[in-house]
Amino acid sequence: QVQLLEAGGGLVQPGGSLRLSCAASRVIFGICTMSWYRQAPGKQRELVATITGSGTTNYADSMKGRFTISRDNAKNTVYLQMNSLKPEDTAVYYCHARNDLTADYTWGQGTQVTVSS
To answer: What is residue 84's DSSP assignment?
Structure first.
């Protein structure tokens, strides 16, 4: 069973930055497409960014230019660097891993990001 452990959430002022991390275990990390999703109160979960095993990235339009997804395959870890944060970025951020061979997927437990002055 794949396990994902997120870290790095917290309270930040508007315009600030945070870096989230998600460490995967019990998985061949290199064959996983990793994604970050977020869910704000009263809203549906939405895709933030995706990175394939080879490093190809994709972003939701509202995050382009502010957020950067990256991965370190040697550490089985994916990151989300978030800059120029806005109050509307407040949400629980979830890590998602999809095995590209089996299509099996796993969610992390989520980490709260709050952007407020």
So the answer is: S
